[in-house]
Design goal:
Keywords: Membrane, Transmembrane, Transmembrane helix. This is Acyl-CoA thioesterase. The chain has about 575 residues and is an alpha+beta fold. The chain folds into 3 domains: about 300 residues, no CATH class; about 70 residues, no CATH class; about 160 residues, Roll (Thiol Ester Dehydrase, Chain A). It is about 55% helix and about 10% strand. It contains 19 helices and 10 strands. The strands form 3 sheets. The chain has a 6-stranded antiparallel sheet. A hairpin with a 2-residue loop joins strand 3 and strand 4. Helix 1 packs across helix 6 and helix 15 packs antiparallel against helix 16. The radius of gyration is 30 Å and the shape is elongated. It starts with 5 loop residues before the first helix and ends with a strand.
Length: about 575
């Protein structure tokens, strides 16, 4: 029900009237497929929706909020203009605001599990109202339907439609909220969205059939293009059936409003809980993250579009233009690519894409058809990073190579004005490198770094290495544990507080059962402080039975296996390898 917002509800009527059943299916099928693919792809990649969304929500919160703003604005605008205004006149906007307020109250007072039951009741009542809205068999008004010819405008909208519907569910925080809760409850996200997409398609067919059953004439919009969004209501003039359609449309609107309030609150609460923004020391997080602000922005967009006399198309276009660059970057992260999401670039190109859409919609079908590509160009940095192997390009500020660390070699720091900032940890020249600065907390009574801290630093570097190689590893559902079979470290030199230290770690060797990691600890002033190695083994998480190197370890470590290794490993089954 929450997916049957203004776009699906009213645009299905428009295309069915303007372009016949062929036009309707060209709209409805990609719409349902986009919803299905969201659930199918999200679960088929073995992702935990909660963990994935937790990783991206902070970065993409502005984008996700914008998508909800437009969804609510489109729904409020379409419900008011195409249904309520023809029945209630000047009071239509007041009724819409009342529905919005009541919906927000429902969203605040319920959990998502409870809201699901409410929406189930909505669905039954809505379908019953839609059935009552059909004209009686044999008594349907005889009205000529539009010719339904496929024209240049329809063809120009094909690519924007595909882009908007394929990216749309990924930008909808309500869908993320549902996927997370389905997984948390032990359900199948894939099966749920397959059933949901099929049910949603049926609802679209009901609306299309309802519009064509009543017929009716289109209304000329301010841009000179005929719209059929409200043709069914206009054809019902003087009939009690229009109140049944009003009830059906109101139920669809309410199920969007309450879900938007609840999901926005769910996301903003999660993000702000983890935020260290100084603003939160002065303004309560509940006020900053309140769903009221996005919903107020939606009302402003709705009012502006109504005052300008625009059609619904102008509130729909952001999904195919303005939001596409960020949406493509978000999907790339879900697929495991290292995203280079540049907010300013995506918004600038998105605005240019939206302007191209507006001009093309009224003047040039070719410009209309190509407008989404301009918005998608915001994802090009992510594509470029992927083609470059996912590595960061060297910063232009770096004018000298980083000092090399050779065993037993003393390396002096460059002058302070030549020190270049760098990341605290990451892969460099075959090693995983972690940088740190000891403090008094790391020293003993003599004044040098306590010996046990070198071991602790190596362990921390190892954990970061594991996380870089296997970011999806989770102790809660893992089938194996990684144990340290042995650890050996030779101390070479000492260091003290505030003298920068670099810990380096790489895979030294392996066989079917064990992996040996080599490590070195360097002081940027003293040179090599110590080096050693450790041996890892793997056991079943339930029986503690020793295992061959697990498949996921091979997949994660494979890019970093020593090239001189005599073994060529190939996965043969989960938890086993063959040499």
């Amino acid at each position: 029900m929450s997916w049957l917002w203004g776009l699906g509800f009213f645009y299905s009527m428009h295309v069915a009237m303007a372009y016949g059943w062929l036009g309707f299916f060209a709209f409805a099928i990609p719409n349902a497929i986009g919803l299905f693919l969201f659930g199918h792809v999200l679960e088929s990649r073995g992702n935990d929706p909660g963990r994935v969304f937790g990783a991206i929500q902070g970065t993409y919160m502005g984008l996700l909020l914008a998508a909800q703003v437009f969804a609510v604005a489109v729904t409020a605008f379409a419900f008011t203009r195409y249904v309520a205004s023809s029945l209630l006149g000047p009071g239509a906007a007041v009724m819409t605001v009342m529905l919005l307020l009541v919906s927000c109250a429902v969203g605040r007072a319920t959990t998502l599990v409870q809201l699901r039951k409410v929406h189930a009741a909505y669905l039954c009542a809505g379908v019953a109202a839609a059935a009552l809205a059909f004209p009686p068999f044999g008594d349907a008004p005889v009205r000529a339907l539009p010719p339904g010819d496929i024209d240049a405008l329809f063809l120009g909208l094909v690519l924007p439609t595909l882009v908007g519907f394929l990216l749309g569910p990924w930008l909808d925080v309500q869908q993320w909220h549902r996927a997370v809760e389905i997984r948390r409850a032990g359900g199948s996200v894939r099966a749920s969205y397959a059933a949901g997409a099929a049910g949603f398609f049926v609802l679209l067919v009901i609306n299309a059939a309802l519009a064509r059953a009543w017929g009716g004439e289109g209304a000329m919009a301010s841009d000179g293009i005929v719209n059929y969004h409200g043709s069914a209501v206009a054809a019902m003039a003087g009939s009690w059936h229009r109140y049944a359609l009003l009830a059906w449309a109101a139920i669809a609107a309410v199920s969007t409003f309450d879900g938007a309030y609840q999901s926005i609150r769910w996301m903003t609460s999660s993000v702000l809980t983890k935020s260290n923004a100084p603003l939160l020391a002065f303004v309560p997080a509940s006020l900053v993250g309140s769903p009221v602000w996005p919903l107020l922005a939606a009302c402003i967009a709705w009012a502006a579009a109504s005052q300008a006399g625009l059609s619904m198309m102008y509130l729909m276009l952001p999904y195919a233009t303005l939001l596409t660059g960020g949406g493509a970057c978000l999907v790339a992260e879900v697929f495991g690519l290292r995203s280079a999401y540049d907010r300013s670039l995506c918004w600038l190109l998105g605005l240019a894409s939206a302007l191209a859409f507006v001009v093309g919609y009224t003047q040039s079908a070719w410009l209309l058809a190509l407008s989404p590509l301009l918005g998608l160009a915001g994802a090009l940095p992510t594509v470029a990073r992927r083609m470059a192997g996912g590595r960061e390009a060297p910063s232009p500020a770096v004018t000298a190579p980083a000092p090399a660390f050779e065993p037993e070699q003393v390396v002096a720091l460059p002058p302070p004005d030549r020190i270049c900032p760098t990341q605290a940890h990451g892969f460099e020249q075959g090693w995983y490198v972690m940088r740190l600065t000891p403090t008094y907390d790391d020293t003993n009574s003599v004044g040098n770094v306590y010996f046990a801290n070198y071991v602790r630093w190596v362990g921390k570097c190892r954990e970061l290495f594991f996380n870089a190689c296997m970011p999806d590893f989770d102790l809660q559902d893992t089938s194996f544990y990684v144990l340290t079979k042995s650890f050996q470290h030779d101390f070479k030199r000492e260091t003290k507080e505030f003298e920068d230290v670099v810990v380096k770690l790489r895979i030294g060797s392996h066989n079917r059962k064990f992996v040996t990691l080599l490590h070195e600890v360097h002081g940027l002033r003293q040179g090599l402080l110590g080096k050693g190695e450790q041996s890892l083994m793997f056991v079943d998480s339930k029986t503690y039975r020793p295992l061959d190197i697990p498949r996921s370890i091979v997949s994660g470590f494979l890019p970093h296996w020593p090239k001189e290794s005599p073994l060529t490993l190939r996965p043969v089954a989960d938890g086993a390898l063959a040499g």
